[in-house]
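Lab notebook, design round three. We kept the backbone fixed and only want residue identities now. Task for the bench partner: fill in a sequence for the structure below.
Input structure tokens:
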């Protein structure tokens, strides 16, 4: 699944200072007041000065690397679910109530696509350790209850990822499909014969 976003900005949206290599940059994926998807990139030191948008879908921190001339501009516009998962799961991005449900959903989706595999559970039993198959990177994802209430709760974030319907239509068909795919099979009645 691919999500078309602007690539990382070259300057801080708060101070308007140009980013330099290895600056710590906080990235926000947001829904604007007009309902459109947006992105905010700012220096980590300026995070307290950001005027918070009405809806933050997720947040992550990266070390800024300027685009090279030979980089593919079209590819830079694509933020795949896999890239978003790796950004949110990076240890520099501590779990929070905004990111964790989205991270759990992405883990479920990527596990089904065999892009990641569960390898263990942490000693405290609170996180699943996944291996990203392409990079062999190990990431930890908080364990959660992925039931219908979970999907209803994160419907807005999922609408951004899967192109959801109008708000009046209730739970998206994509959410319903995931719930259906993850639900245990119904028990068949015992046969008499």
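Proposed sequence:
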């Amino acid at each position: 699944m691919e999500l078309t976003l602007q690539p990382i900005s070259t300057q801080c949206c708060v101070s308007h200072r140009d980013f330099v290599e290895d600056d710590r940059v906080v990235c926000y994926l947001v829904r604007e007041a007009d309902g459109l998807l947006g992105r905010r990139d700012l220096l980590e030191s300026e995070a307290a000065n950001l005027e918070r948008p009405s809806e933050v879908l997720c947040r992550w921190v990266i070390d800024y690397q300027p685009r090279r001339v030979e980089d593919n501009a079209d590819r830079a516009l694509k933020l795949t679910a896999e890239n978003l998962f790796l950004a949110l799961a990076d240890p520099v991005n501590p779990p929070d109530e905004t990111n964790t449900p989205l991270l759990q959903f992405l883990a479920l989706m990527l596990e089904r696509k065999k892009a990641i595999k569960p390898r263990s559970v942490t000693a405290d039993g609170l996180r699943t350790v996944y291996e990203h198959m392409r990079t062999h990177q190990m990431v930890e994802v908080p364990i959660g209850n992925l039931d219908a209430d979970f999907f209803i709760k994160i419907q807005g974030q999922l609408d951004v990822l899967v192109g959801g319907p109008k708000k009046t239509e209730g739970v998206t068909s994509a959410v319903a499909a995931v719930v259906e795919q993850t639900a245990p099979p119904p028990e068949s009645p015992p046969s008499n014969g």
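Keep this in mind before ordering anything: Residues 166-176, 181-188 have pLDDT under 50 and may be disordered.
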